[in-house]
TrEMBL record:
Residues in Major facilitator superfamily (MFS) profile domain copies: 15-445
Transmembrane segments: 14-37, 49-69, 81-100, 106-127, 139-163, 169-188, 200-220, 226-243, 263-285, 305-323, 330-351, 357-375, 396-415, 421-442
Keywords tagged on the record: Cell membrane, Membrane, Transmembrane, Transmembrane helix, Transport
Protein name listed in UniProt: Transporter
GO molecular function, one term: transmembrane transporter activity
Native source organism of the sequence: Bradyrhizobium nanningense
Length: 446
């Protein structure tokens, strides 16, 4: 998809600013809400397990939408997908802020997640249409910062907002950025569109498979075992039907050619495990701090910040290490450190000092930062360069699948774990981090 050479420097800056803005907002959308979950729970007089669906809905919707959007982006056009995704994200943010009940808030988050999927799928690919080939690396470096910085500052931003305002303002702050949509449409280069049939059967089976499975795990937390098992089994059946349908499709959404490469497949599984561990901790820690340690939302925000902050600091270092050492080794060490940090949180003293929490979460952040860049590099370079778009789509899909699985498990554990739900979530995170470390190590023998 060309068009970069005909862009003026001014238009390139405007278009790139809008892309960075959207990617930053979608990253912030994942990081900023966790801190406010206890406040939202109190506001609607809802249970912790029910409130967790404010996070689950966003992750689940994005996960369900990623593959269909990635498969249709050539026929719809990157420019149209990105602008539509950003517009949907901002409008859904207004819906979240104005939600009168928890079900309405969860519904708005579903729509917001769909918008985030459009931003994620089209955003990185658009960099290649905006910059000439010789400057693409510069654009991708800016993208990495746009994703990492909001993730690092999300808890602090949330804590700051909650000092002076109620939780709806966490969503209202997105509203002014909707003005970027017309700016982007005016500045971005024209799309090259390719005719591609809409695979309605595949899209439906994809949505049912991921949706029923995640909802079933969450339903287990409500104590309704038979219904939950029925949802999980139905989800697995839909997934098997989805795989069969995709294998027979002439233009499948799933990149089967890449999955035949062991390095790529193991990298995908490593990513799923690591992001499941991350979200198990991210969602449960605010409840742990505010319920068990009786801290305020502001104190919670600042205590959680060392994790994403150290991830942002460590990720570029890990990128340089990847040049000298195998990605499998660096990732394994990183995920082992993440497991150690989470385990230390499980055995946190009954009345810990703030520093006891800070250095443990900083260790988690260092471990996650060591994993992230090398694993992404391995995934993106495992296949031929002509399949980098499909690899990028699976990179995002693995991240959201891990988040959705972890979020659903949080709901399950909170529903059945009683007063120890947060600690059990951290213990589950230890398990996922160790599985990810072992999976990463297996890449050395491929």
């Amino acid at each position: 998809m060309g068009g970069s050479e005909c862009l003026t420097a001014s238009k390139r800056r405007w278009a790139m600013l809008c892309i960075l803005l959207g990617l930053g907002l979608s990253s912030l959308g994942s990081a900023i809400v966790n801190i406010a979950l206890p406040n939202i729970s109190h506001s609607f007089a809802s249970s912790e397990a029910a409130t967790v669906w404010v996070v689950n809905a966003y992750q689940l919707s994005a996960t369900v939408c990623l593959l269909p959007i990635a498969s249709l982006v050539e026929s719809l056009g990157l420019k149209r997908v990105y602008a539509s995704g950003l517009a949907v994200f901002v409008l859904a943010s207004l819906g979240c802020a104005l939600a009168p009940t928890l079900p309405v808030l969860v519904s708005a988050r579903l729509v917001q997640g769909a918008g985030a999927a459009g931003i994620s799928v089209a955003g990185i690919a658009l960099v290649r249409t905006i910059y000439p080939q010789r400057l693409v690396s510069k654009g991708l470096a800016l993208v990495a910062l746009a994703v990492a910085i909001p993730g690092a500052l999300g808890p602090t931003i949330a804590a700051t907002i909650l000092v002076v305002a109620k939780w709806p303002w966490l969503f209202l702050v997105n509203a002014p950025f909707g003005l970027a949509v017309p700016l982007f449409v005016a500045a971005a280069p024209p799309d090259v569109q390719v005719a591609r049939p809409l695979d309605l059967i595949g899209i439906s089976l994809n949505a049912l498979a991921f949706g029923l499975f995640a909802i079933g795990i969450g339903t287990l937390g409500s104590g309704d075992g038979p219904v939950a098992m029925g949802e999980i089994v139905a989800g697995l059946i839909c997934f098997s039907l989805f795989l069969r349908q995709q294998l027979q499709h002439s233009m499948p959404m799933l990149p089967f050619d890449l999955f035949r490469i062991p390095l790529f497949t193991l990298s995908v599984w490593t990513s799923i495990c690591s992001y499941a561990a991350q979200i198990l901790a991210y969602v449960s820690l605010p409840f742990f701090f505010e319920t068990a340690m009786h801290l305020s939302a502001v104190e919670t925000g600042f205590l959680v910040t060392p994790w994403p902050l150290m991830t942002a600091v460590t990720a570029p270092i890990a990128g340089r290490l990847t040049i000298r050492y195998p990605a499998s080794v660096i990732c394994s060490i990183g995920l082992a450190l993440l497991a150690v940090g989470l385990l230390l949180m499980v055995f946190l003293p009954t009345t810990p000092a703030k520093w006891d929490v800070v250095w443990r979460l900083a260790l988690c952040g260092i471990g996650f930062g060591l994993f992230q860049t090398p694993n992404n590099t391995a995934m993106m370079t495992a296949g031929p360069i002509g399949r980098s778009g499909a690899a990028s789509g699976m990179n995002a899909a693995a991240r959201y699948v891990g988040w959705s699985l972890g979020s659903a498990l949080v709901s399950l554990i909170f529903g059945s774990g009683g007063d120890h739900g947060a600690v059990l979530c951290l213990a589950a995170g230890v398990g996922f981090a160790l599985i990810g470390s072992a999976t990463s190590s297996a890449r050395r023998f491929r």
